[in-house]
Design a protein that fits this description.
The protein has three helices and three strands. The protein is mainly alpha-helical. The protein is rod-shaped.
Length: 195
């Protein structure tokens, strides 16, 4: 190797490794932001699915409540029918106090039916709250914006280190080392240029 010293080869290798390290650090930061974006998108999809399921559960709770309310009214009508038949079988006149008994049964039955409706509405409301919370989560995850500040900082830091090493490689650490220009030797003074 003519004119190339071991120190020059080592310095060149150091520069190459610094450049590779800077590129790897930059790519690592970029990949990290991409992974965080993918995770946020996944979490958004999960939250949207939770919202959809909770909405379906809410609708189901109301539908079941309506069916149970109707059943409760049928049970009440059946009781009133049974009471009316029993009173008539005894030969009771169905005016006056016997109608009070039937009215009490009707009121109690309606109260039970309204309780069933209210319980279904409360259950549905709980699911609506879950759906709303899941929708809010989806909005939060959907608002993820990657920050490339870390990647930029890695790139700038690495570039600064690389420039410093390049400067030391080119000019040496003393600042006044000879440099070959056009086949002749010249001296470079950092403060003033070629001398």
């Amino acid at each position: 190797m003519s004119g190339v010293t071991t120190a020059t080869v080592i310095a060149g290798a150091g520069l190459a490794l610094s450049a590779a390290s800077t590129a790897a650090s930059f790519m690592g930061q970029m990949n990290q932001q991409a992974a965080q974006g993918a995770q946020a998108n996944y979490m958004k999809q999960v939250a949207l699915q939770r919202q959809q399921v909770a909405d379906q559960q809410s609708a189901d709770a109301l539908a079941r409540g309506q069916v149970n309310e109707d059943k409760q009214r049928q049970v009440t009508a059946s009781r009133i029918g049974t009471q009316t038949a029993a009173l008539a079988a005894q030969g009771t006149d169905l005016s006056g106090s016997p109608t009070d008994i039937l009215g009490d049964t009707a009121r109690a039955g309606e109260q039970d039916a309204l309780t069933v409706r209210n319980n279904a509405a409360r259950e549905a409301w709980g699911y609506k709250v879950q759906a709303n919370n899941a929708g809010n989560d989806a909005g939060l995850y959907g608002g993820f914006q990657p920050s490339y500040m870390g990647a930029g900082a890695s790139l700038l830091s690495g570039a600064g280190t690389l420039a410093d090493k390049w400067s030391k490689f080119q000019f040496g650490s003393g600042g006044n080392d000879p440099v070959s220009i056009g086949g002749s030797q010249a001296s470079y003074d950092i403060s003033g240029g070629l001398v």
